[in-house]
Amino acid sequence: MSDVWLVLGGTLTGAVGPGISVLYATYGELITERAGRINLGTEGSMLMGACFGFIVTVETGSVTVGVFAAMAAGAGLSMVMAYLVIYRDTNQLATGFALTLFGAGITAYAGRGYVDSIIGGLNPISIPLLSEIPKLGQALFQQDILAYIAYVLGPLLFLGLHYTRAGLSLKAVGESIEVAFAAGRNPHVIQIAALAAGGALAGLGGAQLSLGLTHTWSEGMTVGRGFVAVGLVIFAMWSPLRAMVGAFLFGGAIGLQLQLQTVGAPVSPFILDMLPYLIILFVMALWSRASARAMPEGLKGVLKATT
Asked: How many domains is the chain built from?
């Protein structure tokens, strides 16, 4: 019984850190998809953020500068995506995947001299009183600044999407470019802005991984988290608040995986490595019909065009 409580407590404590990096990428992809675009380059933007955020932090000695560099790197890759799919009319699914491969290649090259280097990075900040809540306080309120920003960003995005002119314009473009254009909006500008914001947030997720969670850089360290973020947007039915649930579910799965390894559970390590992704696939399958109904009309057209 003590092992069970140890695993459950460790899972809760270990859920937030891995969940935050995925949450930022999910926020970014959600904004992009609300504008009627799918960016499979999210994984590449996360890698760019993790790598260049780490490099700039090492070279400047400033974590703050490194975080902004990570956002710029992630946004830069997404701007390439924006140019290709909006102005050159390339297939956005193929383009996004190609940019992920590009991001993986350039970060492997640029970061080769920094592999396994250790830096101070982002330090945890304890919130008085809240951090003293048993288990929950340690998990939620002894985190770095990026975690606290992520907590607040979800509700702010929800309010922004539903109650601001910018958010309503974004959703209008995602539903129908023609209708949005007829209403006096510029769909291309809105989609470019959405892709840039999405890339910046994915880069921020990468920075949280290298500067906040691990304090190191290693090649391919995102291990598919960007693709998980794309799936979590569907699970969340394009809602920032549900995205928080999905991201922490993924983080909890990673925490469970680590705890089972710690207590020596008689499960193949290969199964444990797959566990977080299997859980997300299972949950997505349960929610597939509801997600299909909530999908923006613009995305339905994209998916039909690729089948």
From this structure: 1
For 216-248, letters b (16+ CB in 10 Å) and e give bbbeebbeebbbbbbbbbbbbbbbbebbbbbbb
Range from 3-17, 45-59, 64-78 carrying the lowest mean pLDDT? 3-17
Query: Is-contact 207 57, C-beta < 8 A?
Result: no
> What does the pLDDT read at residue 305?
56
Residue with the bigger pLDDT between 109 and 291: it is 109
- Largest Cα span, the chain: 64
Q: Determine the pLDDT at residue 288.
A: 67
Domain annotation covers residue 117: no
Which residue range forms the structural domain that includes residue 10? 2-112+126-305
Q: Is the pLDDT of residue 7 over 70?
A: no
- Rounded to an integer, what distance in angstroms lies between the CA atom of residue 224 and that of residue 112? 20
Report CA-CA distances (Å) from 223 to 139, 200, 209, 239: 23, 19, 11, 24
Q: Is residue 118 part of a domain?
A: no
pLDDT on residue 1: 46
22 belongs to a structural domain: yes
The CATH number given to whatever domain includes residue 65 is 1.10.3470
pLDDT of 195 above 80: yes
Concatenating the DSSP letter of every residue in the chain gives -HHHHHHHHHHHHHHHHHHHHHHHHHHHHHHHHHTT---TTHHHHHHHHHHHHHHHHHHHS-HHHHHHHHHHHHHHHHHHHHIIIIIS---HHHHHHHHHHHHHHHHHHHTGGGBT-B---SPPEEPTTGGGSTTHHHHHSEE-HHHHHHHHHHHHHHHHHHHSHHHHHHHHHHH-HHHHHHTT--HHHHHHHHHHHHHHHHHHHHHIIIIIISSBB-TTTTTTHHHHHHHHHHHTTT-HHHHHHHHHHHHHHHHHHHHHHHTT-SS-HHHHHHHHHHHHHHHHHHTHHHHHHHS-HHHHHHHHHT-
